[in-house]
Amino acid sequence: PGKEQIQTYGNMLFVASDESSYGNGGNVWVYEIDNLSQAPISLDAPTDSKFFGCSLALDTDSKKLYVGAKGIGNTLGKVYAYDLENIQSAPSSFASQDHVSGDYFGASLTYFGNKLVVGIASSKYVAGVASSNDSIAVYDTSNFGTYLNRYYVNNGGRSGNGAAFGTKSSQVAMSSNGIVIGAPSFGHSWGLYGPGAVFYVPMTDGVLGSLQRLSESGLNVGDNENVGMAVDIDGDSIYGSYYGRTNHPLGGGIAVWSWSNITAAPTTLDTVSDDVANGMINFAFSPVPVVKTIGTIVGDNTAAIAAETAARTAAIAAIPATDLTP
Questions:
Q1: Sign (positive/negative) of CA torsion 55, 56, 61, 63?
Q2: Parallel, antiparallel or unpaired: strands 207-208 and 253-258
Q3: What pTM did the predictor assign?
Q4: pLDDT tens string for the chain (326 positions)?
């Protein structure tokens, strides 16, 4: 599980897994944090769902746990809402108002301030049809499931992934300043690896604006850098990770933008070599790292960064070459 499949609320730890044959089943387990040896409560997949547990989001205002079940084939993607005060009660649910079965609605979830952002990882891309692009939809949780807006980029991408625009929860973040969306495959004609980009939707007094692209000036973005593989927000700072690939300009690292100077070029943190970055793809380091998880090695912490890089390099070198295939 990644950022999108682990959440905590009070004494409850939620761990989701959608891994099963063709998306059948899926579970969310609820543990008591102060008694982890106790068997967890299991929130089983509703009978009408596929890939239940592919994403999680907490709404501490309405006290809801949102669970994504993105669907597949003829199964419609849905978002289920559980009552945090009565977690075993039957959930309510809603589906996209303008999508069809196989739309992967609910592939990602992010919540902030009575707004739920739902990622739609389109599996039915049709050239020239806007609704078939990867996109995010925004809903009002104070009036459950009320649609507010939808944002997408037309990548001209391949059927399936398009620009990978917000298709994982680690590629979407939100604060009082707005929404940030990573699109790591943006700019590649067939949508697998691309230069990537980070987009944002500003918000003023709770009202969302139009989709815009953050500056990449100074990043020297190459074809396979996957900028926007993970994004996060911390106060005025916007973080966007990239991992690079061998023989391309960037190694792995983090680009940092500022809400207060949103059009300015980003600064960068913790850039590592292409070899290490490439190893991060294939070894035990997720290609969608959570920025806050690695926050302990950001800043004036040169020794920790060097130790982390050395440990990763040694671990990668110990893996048989046959296990390093992307």
A1: positive
A2: unpaired
A3: 0.75
A4: 444 588 899 999 999 887 655 556 688 999 999 998 899 999 988 888 888 888 999 999 999 999 998 887 777 889 999 999 999 999 999 888 766 666 788 888 999 989 999 988 765 555 555 555 678 889 999 887 788 888 887 654 443 345 677 777 788 999 999 999 988 877 665 445 567 889 999 999 999 999 999 998 877 655 556 788 888 899 999 988 876 654 444 456 788 999 999 999 998 875 554 443 433 332 223 333 333 333 333 344 556 556 666 666 666 566 555 444 44
| Angle, helices 302-317/274-282, rounded to nearest 10 degrees | 60
Question: 232, 182 in Cβ contact below 8 A?
Answer: no
DSSP states of 204-265 = ETTEE---EE---TTS---TT--BTSEEEEETTEEEEEE---TTSS--SEEEEEEGGGTTSP
Closest CA to 172 of 135, 142, 219: 135
Decide: residue 13, CB within 10 A, 0-12 exposed, 13-18 middle, 19+ buried: middle
How far, in Å, CA of 15 to CA of 4, rounded? 10
C-beta of residue 253 within 8 angstroms of C-beta of residue 242: yes
Q: Which residue has the tokens 């989701």?
A: 16
Spatial contact of 252 and 244, defined as CB atoms under 8 Å apart: yes
Q: Tokens at residue 244, please?
A: 């690079």
